[in-house]
Specification:
- The protein is mainly α and 456 residues long.
- It has 2 domains: 116 residues, Cytochrome b5-like heme/steroid binding domain (Flavocytochrome B2, Chain A, domain 1), CATH 3.10.120; 334 residues, no CATH class.
- The chain has 25 helices and 5 strands.
- The longest helix has 23 residues.
């Protein structure tokens, strides 16, 4: 579910500042206005709510409490073939989690409105998950707040100040303080990249771009608004989830068998001594490539100036180790990312339920402790993150019991293991990649869609 929308994102976001079909958290209030437009009356004369059976028969899609016809939009969308393949499905969570807070998306969605949706015909799991999200929103869990933002800025400022004060007394202490601050910023950027911090997506894009340049020496927009959001919509779907494309390693048995013999052996060594340490440089190369493709010469100049300035400062202070702070931070990010999905069930199909896929393909780290919770950016509670990515990660501990109750009510697994347990499962997947669950030999993605091919 959500395949078309997520796979189509990367090209379209390069063509427009705000991506088509991007949906804000408060879209449901605006949809009430859309229901009274002349277009709605012309589209469906009966005006009554449509059931899920009728939606499938007509080839429409469902979002929140409305039914939409995306045919006209798909005709001018670069990933239109994929969008059309998703007709007849409930895309509430997929659309919202991929593209929140876009005015362009709100206009596109209103223009495509057809009829109200008969809530009683929605899948019970999706209905209960949506009700939980609405309740959490009403209780303020999705609000970030200026005080929290001020606290973040103060925390970073203090980290930098303490690093400067500690530097004359020991480079190692200064390095650790600067690294801690950088990791803190990295995970904040991750939250902001999910639209969990700012109401205005354009502001979020600008801020995470320049924070990424300042702290990491690389822009972040291309990754967070491209590969990472695709990952959220297509988690562990082979051929779609680009997070599974980790250099020479393949995470499913079928693909791993096609790799050269060199890459089928000593996969532990490759992962821990090559791929994870190279995560930082790889992200830098990817970010620079993204800037070149979009001809962002000013941004490239800022990146070069940042590295020259930091390099000069490190040379003046005789502290070359400070140059590798972004590299080490990227390695931490790569290691943490490997504990949540790679050993979980893999498939070639998303299935009809986004929420069910989250519970089946995502894992938490239980009883991780406050330090690990901070080091992983709150993503030790990864089930909660994939279910509610537009919620800031510092709220996940509060909502976890309710998410666990949702899983129990519908007989779904709530995967959780210890830190050592997660590492053991990762090692097991490296030694023997898991099979793909779906037996489909071919992806159901329409031929010719640019996102069916491996991203460059």
């Amino acid at each position: 579910m959500g395949r078309a929308f997520f796979r189509a994102f990367r090209i379209h976001e390069a063509m427009h500042d705000s991506v088509g079909l991007q949906v804000a958290e408060r879209a449901s209030e605006r949809m009430a206005l859309a229901a009274r437009t002349p277009r709605a009356a012309e589209t469906r004369a009966s005006g009554g709510p449509m059931t899920m059976v009728e939606v499938r028969a007509a080839g429409y899609v469902v979002f929140e409490d409305g039914v939409y016809d995306i045919t006209r939009f798909a005709a001018r969308h670069p990933g239109g073939a994929f969008l059309l393949s998703m007709r007849g499905q409930d895309l509430t969570f997929a659309f919202d989690n991929a593209h929140a807070r876009s005015r362009v998306a709100q206009r596109a969605l209103r223009a495509a409105w057809v009829a109200p949706f008969a809530e009683a015909s929605r899948d019970p799991l999706e209905r209960d998950a949506l009700a939980l999200r609405r309740a959490l929103r009403a209780e303020g869990f999705f609000s970030y707040g200026r005080r929290r933002l001020a606290f973040d800025v103060l925390r970073w400022s203090m980290g930098l100040a303490f690093a400067a004060v500690a530097f004359p007394h020991g480079h190692a202490v200064a390095f650790l303080l600067l690294l801690a601050t950088t990791v803190d910023v990295v995970w904040w950027i991750h939250d902001a990249g999910h639209d969990a911090v700012f109401e205005d997506e354009r502001r979020a894009r600008r801020i995470i771009e320049w924070l990424g340049v300042a702290f990491l020496g690389m822009p972040q927009q291309g990754y967070h608004y491209g590969v990472h959001r695709v990952h959220h919509g297509t988690t562990n779907v082979v051929g779609m989830d680009q997070a599974l494309e980790t250099g020479p390693l393949a995470w499913d048995a079928a693909t791993a068998a096609t790799k050269p013999a060199l890459f089928r052996r000593a996969r532990w060594v490759q992962w821990f001594l090559v791929i994870v340490p190279a995560a930082g440089p790889a992200l830098l190369v990817s970010a620079l490539s993204h800037c070149v493709r979009r001809r962002q010469w000013g941004l490239l100049g800022a990146i070069a100036a940042r590295w020259i300035a930091v390099g000069g400062l490190c040379a003046y202070l005789h502290a070359p180790t400070l140059l590798i702070v972004p590299w080490v931070a990227g390695s931490i990010l790569g290691f943490m990312a490997g504990l949540n999905h790679f050993h979980m069930p893999l498939s070639r199909e998303l299935g009809p339920s986004y929420v069910r896929a989250v519970f089946e393909r995502t894992q938490n780290i239980e009883n991780a402790g406050r330090f690990w919770h901070w080091l992983s950016g709150g993503l030790d509670l990864h089930v909660e993150h994939h279910l509610f990515p537009t919620m800031a990660s510092h709220r996940y501990r509060e909502v976890a019991p309710r998410v666990r109750a949702l899983a129990a009510a519908h007989g779904l697994p709530y995967h959780a293991t210890s830190r050592l347990g997660a590492i053991r499962k990762l090692l097991r997947a490296l030694r023997s990649p898991p099979p793909v669950l779906a037996a489909a030999a071919e992806s159901s993605a329409p031929a010719g869609c640019p996102f069916h091919r491996r991203a460059s």
